[in-house]
Amino acid sequence: MSSHSNTVDHATHAHDNHDHSHDHHEQSFWSKYIFSTDHKMISKQFLITAIFMGVVAMMLSIFFRLQLAWPGQSFSILEYFLGKKWAPNGVLDSNMYLALVTIHGTIMVFFVLTGGLSGTFSNLLIPLQIGARDMASGFLNMLSFWFFAVSSLIMFYSMFIETGPASAGWTIYPPLSALQEAIPGSGLGMTLWLVSMTLFVAGSLLGSINYIVTVLNLRTKGMTMTRLPLTIWAFFVTAILGVLSFPVLFAAVLLLIFDRSFGTSFYLSDIFISGQAMEQTGGSPVLFQHLFWFLGHPEVYIVLLPALGITSEVISTMSRKPIFGYRAMIGSILAIGFLSFIVWGHHMFITGMNPFLGSVFVFTTLLIAIPSAVKAFNYVTTLWKGNLKLSPAMLFAIGLVSTFVTGGVTGIILADSALDINVHDTYFVVAHFHIVMGASAIFGMFCGVYHWFPRMFGRMMNNKLGYAHFWITFIAVYGVFFPMHFIGLTGVPRRYYSNEAFALFENLQSINILITVFAIIGALAQGLFIFNFFYSMYRGKKSLQNPWESNTLEWTAPVEHLHGNWPGELPTVYRWPYDYSKPGKDVDFVPQTVPLSPGEEEH
Amino acid sequence: MISLLTYAAIILGIVAIARLLKVYELSATLKGNEQEDAVSYSDNKFNARLMMVFLFAFFAFCIYLVISYKDNLLPEAASEHGVEIDSLFNFNLLIIGIVFIAVNILLFYFAYKYYSRKGLKATYFAHSTKLEMIWTVVPAVFLAVIIIYGLAVWNKITSPIDSNKAVVMELFAEQFKWTARYGGADNVLGETNYKLTADMNPLAIDTTDKNAWDDKISNGEFHIPVNKVVLMYFRSKDVLHSAYMPHFRAQMNCVPGMRTEFHFTPTITTAEMKVKTNNPEFEYVLLCNKICGATHWNMQMKIVVDTEDDYKKWLAEQKTFKEKSMAQTAIENKVAINH
């Protein structure tokens, strides 16, 4: 250990000298704000791009919710945004409905909750919390953002082409995604989707490799792995999941491109469409599903783990208590990370996959409930006998625990293959994953933004607006997604343009209106956040050095934008990050940089 | 013009809020209300109370939903395995319901009870092996029960059956309709080859296969007998579809290039179900549950569960594939001659 930290120390000293010469010359606008290699600036770039994409995806969801609540009715807002072709006389076109659902899902899962969440907070916090000058490679980090930005642009642009964007669902199962004859969105729209996702994967890999290397090699003196804040553990494992699973999505996408453009038959077989028998035979659409979900399931945890890491940190800090079961939390993160690779088949129980294989996936999937339960109970125990400062960030963290549990338990039903037969692809699934993954992850993201805003911009966000934002959002999330369980148990399939074709669903209109009303309220409430965000960036109250009286290293670095994070030497770490309300101390926090007093035990 | 005014109103609104906020912040500073703490005592107290309000409102909302929508949920399962699925579901629901209620109560109650105020000090409680063991082992035990029970049901549902004792049939999916085919007198479905698809032969049946000649094809609706195993095979012509029959708790994907299967025993006839649900219009239905294109939402077929006699009678009325093809050929020949 000591030899290791010596080398780190050495390296940083070398970096120090190098850095001082840089301090004084002015950066141009381009190198400071656009092609920045500074991790703090890159994190802001990720955040703002993600906010933009988030607003777009949220608007799309409102568009299709209008159709679901009031099917066939005319809305001028639809015609205004979608044009005469996709919303003739203000009535949503059924192909466009599928396109909206597809792009909403794609943007939310990949661009907001993967790129936005990991990109923002891994970039901001990894160097600052481990005591590093910057990422291992600032240049790769910059490339990572620009791949992300270009892929966002392509995805955004794909909504404006004549044949419409990809519309085969965010899981883009072939043959629907491969055949333009089957749905117009599978033409140019799908090509752009595939190009965009290829760039996205490249960007994600560059970022993830950087995060892994940085966490392993650039920790400051004394920052052992078991003194890392849980945020860093979560980002670290997330990055490993990304590196192992995203290339598989890339492979899946590449083979799909081959099938679409070069006449191969990886996924296509025995298809008769538009009066023609296609040449391709011997492939299997089920192969695509295996490849897709080999990424797709770890992806769920790529989305969730950073949120869980962020909230662990915030709940501990704002409860003024150490996180309960620090090592169990690390163990859970590792266990979830490992298990996430051997559960993908639970998305495929009824695809014609061998039922015995299904049994294996039932077993592994339900195992994941154990580390998840440990995490939930540890959160609750951390609150117990705390001294809770209910900041907006803390409220979102508490909200996350609630949605994580509420959405998590229904996963047990879906993981049970026998039960999945009847609820597969119904609104029950939509309810489940929006609560456990969508709401939890976005709450984690809001939590992070409110908590680290002072670290990003040197100013505080307005608490009152934050409270209003939280409560309306929280109520709206449950108001939208909880009733969907009931719709699912009525047997309503997801991705239905209208429920009017079935007598079975005729009493569901009022519940669909209820959902849409909550969705609109929830969407409007995000205006509070966006206003608060941009207003506080320029006009917010100036923040103190350490506004939340937190122990971690990022609050020891000066607020002003400084390349290299700390002037002079890097801080040295003497203890774990969770010494809150430690007995025998005058104040209720002891930063990691404070040496142990004589006779003090670490923890 | 109106849209211009709308934009102007929105922009002015935002500016107004910004100004108000600034005034509010300044006045708070002047009054000396500003706390040293990042979160003021009154904010803490207010949000803590809201936690409890939310907890009650949330549970009230859940109860409201259960009461007002329980009659809309699927009626009792109309198949043998469906009944078992429903009891497994209820068993799981009981366990997860308890966890859901208990954890949410503890979470919001603690968030309320321990809000920061003068004199309150947090307890330094970093870990407890005993507690952590409890909440690793207890969930593990419950999950073991769930897994064992669940897999027992699953294995029963998916274990192969003797096709001689079953009604053998096929559901053929295409954008955006279903076609049913029965094995006919020999109860064996004829071979198919997708390249044979034609207007006259939409199911791509191999006409040289003798087993196919007595196959019976039905559009619009299909019948199955009560209390007899139905072995269904599934094919797709174009993209993925999923044959979902919610009343029977039955579902299987239809995959181009691959034949999938599912079997179940219906236990309640359509006529009986009309009485049970007190709905004379009640019908069983087959719907598509895998995104398949523009009219995915209306790809359906009526299912009728008959008594054995009624089923035989209905089936006898259906023409065989051979009869149908010959009739079709006759018509086409006629058309050709007339031209």
Describe this structure in words.
Chain A has 603 residues and is mainly alpha-helical. Chain A has one domain (36-269, 279-556): Cytochrome c oxidase-like, subunit I domain (Cytochrome C Oxidase, Chain A, Up-down Bundle), CATH 1.20.210. Chain A has helices spanning 2-23, 29-34, 39-69, 76-86, 94-130, 138-157, 188-217, 230-261, 285-319, 326-339, 355-367, 369-383, 392-415, 417-423, 427-457, 463-489, 509-539, and strands at 272-273, 276-277. A two-stranded antiparallel ribbon of chain A has the order 1-2. In chain A, strand 1 and strand 2 form a beta hairpin. In chain A, helix 6 runs antiparallel to helix 7 and helix 9 packs antiparallel against helix 13 (392-415). The longest helix of chain A has 37 residues, at 94-130. Chain A is globular. Chain A starts with a helix and ends in a 64-residue tail after the last helix. Mean pLDDT of chain A is 92; it is low at 1-24. With 339 residues, chain B is α+β, with helices and mostly antiparallel strands. Chain B folds into two domains: 44-116 and 123-159, no CATH class; 166-338, Sandwich (Immunoglobulin-like), CATH 2.60.40.420. Chain B contains eight helices and ten strands. Chain B has helices at residues 2-31, 41-69, 80-113, 129-158, 210-213, 270-276, 308-317, 321-338, and strands at 167-174, 177-182, 216-219, 221-225, 230-236, 241-245, 250-254, 260-264, 284-288, 300-306. In chain B, the strands form two sheets. Chain B has a five-stranded mixed sheet with strand order 3-2-1-5-8, with no helix packed on it. A five-stranded mixed sheet of chain B has the order 4-10-9-6-7. In chain B, helix 2 runs antiparallel to helix 3 (80-113) and helix 3 (80-113) runs antiparallel to helix 4. Chain B is elongated, with a radius of gyration of 31 Å.
